[in-house]
Design a protein that fits this description.
By secondary structure, the chain is α/β, with parallel strands linked by helices. It has helices at 3-13, 15-24, 32-44, 58-68, 84-88, 122-134, 169-172, 186-196, 211-221, 228-242, 261-277, 285-296, 304-308, 313-323; strands spanning 48-51, 73-77, 89-94, 99-104, 111-115, 136-139, 142-145, 151-156, 177-180, 255-257, 301-302. The chain is 46% helix and 15% strand. Strands 2-5-8-1-9 form a five-stranded parallel β-sheet.
């Protein structure tokens, strides 16, 4: 397939993205970055970790997306007394038939909102993350595939940490993106007030796309061209998180551990999806820069010195981006 043919296919196949954004805009005000990251997660077949205070429309965004895609949706409010079987299901004994039969859990939906994932104990987190990784659930002696597409959006509250079970770094690494959700601007909040401060606010979206269109777009995302110079640029960025002294000496005392090879793979995949969403058949260095924060912020571990000085992973990533030579 030539570049021109691929470009034409991308233009035709990506039309549903604009339609979904427009439909979600009927119930969401602002949060454009959140909507973009949700769609990007679908295109990359990856999961997303959201960090933000309550009330920033995280649940509404996922429900609006599922309604726009004619996909199924389930929401879990994670609590300390939750059990793995509450998510994935269990085997139920039927005395009349004298045998066990599977009772599939609510995780068998296309879009899953895991609200406050850090409030669930380790066994529940492990069950969810295993399903995310393997795309299947094993009950008894059989494995049951999860539906396609399958996207988990997990949320964390950055303020209230009392009674929480923090996700280990190895589990955090399994999320494609970690997105920080911020407060709306004053103009956006005024629009929210005008729309929602009624007895019957609009929360429903209409079907404007299908899971089959998402699947077809995923195949095209894998065909988006990445030049060798861009590949080397991605590797240089990842290497700078592991060997920071090579690009900026002060970073050595701030970084305890850098990004894993999964970070390299996900940064390239996210850059491809970003190019696809912008209607291009090739990746530019700006695509890599645009996705670097969300892909890497949960993959860099800070030293105690950095935490004491108030240094954030975002500040470190920004510094690395400014130091590594752009092709």
């Amino acid at each position: 397939m030539t570049t021109e043919q691929l470009q034409e296919q991308i233009y035709e196949s990506s039309g549903w993205i604009h339609a979904v954004k427009e439909e979600m805009g009927k119930v969401l005000v602002g949060q454009d970055d959140l909507v973009d990251r949700l769609l990007l997660g679908l295109l990359c077949n990856g999961h997303i970790l959201l960090e933000g205070v309550p009330g920033l429309a995280k649940t509404l965004a996922v429900k609006a997306l599922s309604g726009s895609l004619s996909a199924t949706f389930a929401r879990f409010q994670f609590t300390p007394d939750l059990l793995p079987a509450d998510l994935v299901g269990t085997m139920i004994y039927h005395p009349q038939e004298m045998k066990f039969a599977p009772k599939l859990g609510p995780i068998f939906n296309n879009l899953i909102l895991a609200d406050e994932i850090n409030r669930a104990p380790a066994k529940v987190q492990s069950a969810l993350l295993e399903a995310m990784q393997e795309r299947q659930v094993t009950l008894g002696d059989r494995s049951y595939p999860l539906p396609k597409p399958f996207l988990v959006l997990a949320t964390q509250n950055p303020i209230d940490q009392e009674g929480t079970y923090q996700l280990p770094e190895a589990q955090l690494d399994r999320f494609l993106l970690k997105v920080n959700v911020n407060y709306p601007s004053k103009d956006e909040e005024l629009e929210i007030l005008n729309r929602m401060a009624t007895s019957a606010p609009i929360y429903e979206t209409q079907h404007v796309a299908t899971p089959e269109q998402v699947s077809a777009s995923r195949d095209l995302v894998n065909s988006v061209y990445i030049d060798d110079s861009i590949r080397k640029y991605i590797v240089e960025l990842i290497d700078a998180t592991r060997n920071p002294v090579r690009v900026d000496a002060p970073l050595k005392s701030w970084i305890r551990a850098g990004a894993s090879p999964r970070g390299t793979i996900n940064l390239a995949l996210a850059a491809r999806a970003r190019a696809f969403m912008n209607g291009r058949a090739f990746v530019t260095p700006q695509d890599v820069k645009d996705m670097a924060m969300d892909v890497l912020r949960h993959r860099i571990l800070l030293t105690y010195e950095a935490e004491a000085e108030g240094i954030t992973t975002d500040a470190i990533i920004a510094r690395i981006l400014s130091k590594v030579v752009v092709p």
